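Lecture notes, part 5. Sequence design as translation. It can be helpful to think of inverse folding as translation between two languages: the language of shapes and the language of residues. The source text, in structure tokens, appears below.
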């Protein structure tokens, strides 16, 4: 398409910011509407796999990103009690060689800082304090509404996360489901951890009904930890709440001494827990000249560490699809057709991992035997994909 489209993006998360950058790079005119007045990401980490880094490199922000990351040596699954290595995969040495791009761990606020700086450099409009509450159509053009103000554009993309208002307005109420998993998150300054047992890896400890993920962020000065625990109910009205350190200690009391040491070193005030929700894959994302992106379209459990990566890839494919067709609806359908099989696979893999990671006894024994083939297959499936050439 020769014409530059005015694209309204609802939500300035990792997905919305990346989509604005890819659209601008393809010659379109994106504007981002974000409900928060102050953009602040969670005090937590995110793993940026090679498939996500391919898009970030295409956007020309790799050098800025490199100042903020930690590059892990390897990915490891460990036994929760003994610390025995169940499976290991080299990342630093082999990631670029095998998948063309490195694997990084980063603090969310650092990734957001780099994306925001690129948004500013590209002179993309980002309007904060704009909570979109309604959508509609006027003279064949889609509009969104914030504070009674109607904003008309050529295309609207809902990148407004798992609670997406755009999704609800387009497709009706469909409640996200509680997955019976809670994520406890903490960020521990390295100097607080007295033992020097920590290895420069992305490590996942597997135990019955729980797993524990740890990796460095901020150049190695903090350890980011996520403790994933099965829990039948989620009582809180909200999606996150403060965690009780004594409850966490109790939950992991039978785990390896390294885990005990990390929990012991955690500032109780910095501990939060999330009830993890997801939704089954959607039948259709597009409605008229509206479509969805990132968690708004395909929320998933974090058990394959691909939610943000999928949102980043979505942006690259969306820009190229909209540029390849004169008709906006055909462009949005092309985007959806190219993305949905892959994001559905990520959603299903994450749900399946919820079972596999938390097996016990006999089943865990068999899982451990095949674990190394299992991670290689998952990495190949997700890391090789090139969203910039679709
Ligand atoms: C514990 C945990 C660990 C994870 N680890 C990883 C990982 O290692 N690697 C990975 O790739 N992924 C990971 N993920 C998944 C990843 O965090 C998400 O998939 C990703 O952040 C989704 O980005 P998004 O932009 O689609 O949505 P969001 O980040 O939710 O952004 C949505 C934005 O829209 C705004 N918004 C909402 N409603 C409105 C409205 N009505 N009007 C205007 N603005 C609105 C919100 O304020 C927000 O800024 C993890 C998730 C969890 C819970």
């Amino acid at each position: 398409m020769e014409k530059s489209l005015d694209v309204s993006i609802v939500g300035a998360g990792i997905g919305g910011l990346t989509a604005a950058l890819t659209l601008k790079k393809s010659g379109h005119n994106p504007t981002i509407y974000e409900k928060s007045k102050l953009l602040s990401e969670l005090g937590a980490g995110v793993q940026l796999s090679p498939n996500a880094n391919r898009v970030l490199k295409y956007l020309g922000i790799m050098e800025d990103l490199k100042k903020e990351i930690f590059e892990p040596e390897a990915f490891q699954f460990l036994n929760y009690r003994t610390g025995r290595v169940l499976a290991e995969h080299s990342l630093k040495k082999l990631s670029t060689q095998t998948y063309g791009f490195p694997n990084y761990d980063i603090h969310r606020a650092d990734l957001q800082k780099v994306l925001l700086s690129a948004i500013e450099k590209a002179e993309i409009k980002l309007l904060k304090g704009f909570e979109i509450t309604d959508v509609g159509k006027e003279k064949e053009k889609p509009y969104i509404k914030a504070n009674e103000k109607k904003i008309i554009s050529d295309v609207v993309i809902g990148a407004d996360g798992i609670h997406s208002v755009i999704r609800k307005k387009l497709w009706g109420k469909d409640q996200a489901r509680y997955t019976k998993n809670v994520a406890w998150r903490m960020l521990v300054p390295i100097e607080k951890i007295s033992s020097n047992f920590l290895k420069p890896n992305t490590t996942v400890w597997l135990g019955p009904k729980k797993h524990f993920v740890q990796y460095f962020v901020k150049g190695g000065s903090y350890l980011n930890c996520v403790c994933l625990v099965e829990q039948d109910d989620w009582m809180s009205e909200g999606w996150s709440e403060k965690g009780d350190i004594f409850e966490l200690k109790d939950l992991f009391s039978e785990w390896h001494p390294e885990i005990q040491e990390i929990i012991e070193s955690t500032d109780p005030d910095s501990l939060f827990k999330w009830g993890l929700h997801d939704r089954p894959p959607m039948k259709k994302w597009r409605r008229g000249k509206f479509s969805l992106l990132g968690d708004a379209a395909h929320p998933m459990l974090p058990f394959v560490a691909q939610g943000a990566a999928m949102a980043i890839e979505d942006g690259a494919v969306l820009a190229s699809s909209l540029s390849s067709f004169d008709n906006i609806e055909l462009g949005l359908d092309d985007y959806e057709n190219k993305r949905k099989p892959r994001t559905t696979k990520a959603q299903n893999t994450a749900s399946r991992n919820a079972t596999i990671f938390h097996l016990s006894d006999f089943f865990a024994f068999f899982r451990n035997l095949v674990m190394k083939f299992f991670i290689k297959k998952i990495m190949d499936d997700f890391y090789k994909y090139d969203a910039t050439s679709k």
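The translated text above is only one of many valid answers, since several sequences can fold into similar shapes. Residues 6-175+279-389 form a domain with the FAD/NAD(P)-binding domain fold (CATH 3.50.50.60).
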